[in-house]
Amino acid sequence: MFIYKKDIPLQDLGDGVGRRVLAHGGTMMAVEVSFETGAIGPMHNHVHEQLTYVLSGRFRFTIGEETHEVSAGDTLYKKPYIMHGCVCLEKGVLLDTFTPQRQDFL
What we know:
Layout: E1 11-14, E2 17-25, E3 28-35, E4 40-44, E5 49-63, E6 66-71, E7 75-78, E8 84-99
């Protein structure tokens, strides 16, 4: 499967957050999430394992009881059902990988 970013419109999630569902199949899914400065990824949890790679920008992430600032090149792991969320400190883009796929995003 080849996925070209130019062919996937940015889905406006409101409040400075946008999403593009990239390649997905089997039990995996890649999703690009764009944040404007000050945008919030509210605290939530889900059944999926999630890896987040910071492509650009700066974020304050909370995973469980820990809160840290991250920037381009940093990676985060979220185990199933752990509470997590972020605040964008400097406009940026995240690449999220989920397993299993987020059917609610399709």
